[in-house]
Amino acid sequence: MKNKIIFNGQSIVLTWMISYIVILLLPVVIGLLVYVESNKTLKDEIQQANDSLLKQVREVMDNQFKAMEQLNFEITWNVNMQELLYSNKYEAFPKEYRYDISQIARNLSMYKTSYPLIDSFYVYLYKDQSVILPTTVRPSAFAYQTLHMSDEFSFASWQEIMTRPNFKGFIPMTRIGDDNMLRKTVAYISTYPMEHNQPLATNVIMVDQSRILGAIQNMEIFNKGHVFILNNENQILASNSAHALPSDFPYDKLINTPNFYFSGSDHEKYEVFNIQSPISKLKYVSIMPSTIYWQKAAHIRNLTYMSMVISLLGGGILTFFFLRRNYNPVRRLVHAFSKKMTLASGQRYNEFHFIQEAVDSTLLEMADFKSKMEQQRHMVRSHFLEKLLKGKLDRHMPIAEALTTFDMKLDRKDFAVMLFVVDQSAPFFERITHTSDEDKWKLLHFIIMNVVEELTSKRHRGYATEIDDSIACLVNLTSEEDANGKEELLRIAKDTQLFLSTTYNIHLTISISSIHEKISNVPQAFLEALDSMAYKLVMGGHEILAYDDLQANRACEPVSGYYYPPQIEQQFLYAVKSGELEEAKSILAEIMNKNFEIRGISVSLTKCLMLGLVTTMMKSISETGDIQESFFIRNPKLVDRLLNSITVPEMNLYLNEMLEQICTYTAAKRQAAISQTRQKALQELVEEISVYIENNYSDANLNVTMIGNHFDRKATYLSKLFKDYVGEGLLDRINKVRIDKSKQLLKRQEQSVGDAANGVGFNDINAFIRVFKKVEGITPGKYKELIEK
């Protein structure tokens, strides 16, 4: 019979052999396609990889160069620098020139702290041939000796760069480091606009090439090539190679061609990749030997041929081995069934079809008998479980005999009861149409019971039954050294909730009893599960209520009270009143943690704690401003929602939301109070300045600088504050007061114009006449004549 089956034209042996051959040829064909496509796409992949790495280098270096440009911008537009270069005050006060230069040097030291990645920077002044460094000023010759002196970079070359008109860009330079070693550096040169056809100053900001080489090192490791950073004049700013670009390198192609082949004078072909920075306008160039492409292509070709040979040889051997091995069990099955089913002589057939027909016939007979028995057995078993849980079993009937009858095994020593109550089933019922509500509930309970028993039976034994409107499951726990019974019950409960909610939209509350060691204690476990389920009214739906945890909380309640001491309340009140949201949230989290995670309090004390926290928030608002303006009055539903919360996480969520709104309100109030305080201080300062002018108007030395020194403020800043608040400049106020006082003196007949001028602090009578006419519209002499008439 074996020979007939193997060589039968309809036998599965022929089908399997064809399938194995097709599967064997599939990787061979795929290997050929991969080889053809890999040669075609290898170049594109390497180009994309190099382009990606170049972009990464560009991004890193652009950030560095942008920092150099940012530092240049801040130095250029520094108020002291602008005043030094473009102000005319040094014609009147030449001695202040050196002071202002030293002040700028001190300012540069602050920039050095703000830009730690900048190695060195200075400002070259053309006017007096000096260099401003952070904290010091040096003559140009001495600055060159300490900063750049080398054989490759002469003093004349440095002077030419410093006096280059209207230049802004990056150039390669050398500098002397703190260790007196000569270093290659990238310098950003920016000259100030010329005035009277003469240069004013030049900013020099330098970053050593050693910082840049780290960013381009990955390119060298990846493609074994060289990476160059070029400026607009194609000068090499930085490179990972000690060699320069070939003399015949086509720089003109870098403008419009992102990648191209280049054959150097050494007859070596290179692949050139380049991108230009849109920010710094620098060019990033990568040069890789072309031979790398063909080395990788040859490697792929060899791997392809080797894989094809191995696939054909190994696949042929495995095909014969598995074909023979897989057919043996099929042959034995056919032989076994053929004893009960007579085959016609010489009949050609497929083994699987023959087995299927034989199995179908047997299963139909068994299913018909089993379904009749199962219907009766299920109802009786449910009734038995209900009596077992309620402790109402017939004492004359041994439990062991009943368990055997219902194919139940309760031979482990640990027992527990889980109770399941449906919280939400509307979405499940909506999916079932043309069915009565009673049938829908039966189907729902049937699904829950099957899911619970299957999840429990993975490690333990569980049997579920309907009791009133809930479902109870008796769990017989397997005793394992590394297993914790309570944790196993919690795991089963969580898995049940998750599966039913995600698959059927059925949401449950589950209660779990403690673990008992005898089957006679099962009724006690059932009562514990019922007692735990009562907490559903307090904890809300979708919870897992463990009897042991609830009893532990009950035991702790008389001792713990609740945690909300006066000092913590004061800290919380101050944080909320100050608008410090993060600090307030931290204190609230500490209160919630110590009450619920560490201590555990009762439901009634939880409500008291919630009211205490809300009262503290209301106190913070009443101390900050009018509580009638707060959102408590405008949004009363926020408090109602908090009072109606039924779980601790829900209460915590509402408290944090309310805390955010209160802190926003108190922070705004606090900011307004600070603004009013500043305005009042400014008003007092203006009044003091006005009194000082009234008391010293006759002093000829009275000016903006004198007032600034008296009030220990910078004169320009004090004048700006005064003008912003009063609407007139400080000098205009001095002149106005002096003119008003001079008018009082001119009303006296014995007072001349000169006497009046001297009396109000004018040493020059012409200046007095000019200011008087500007303020009053007429000269002081004309004013005196009008008074006398």
From TrEMBL:
It comes from the Bacteria. The chain crosses the membrane at residues 12-36, 303-323. SUPFAM superfamilies: Homeodomain-like (SSF46689). Residues 687-786 form the HTH araC/xylS-type domain. Keywords: DNA-binding, Membrane, Transcription, Transcription regulation, Transmembrane, Transmembrane helix. Pfam families: GGDEF_2, HTH_18. This is AraC family transcriptional regulator.
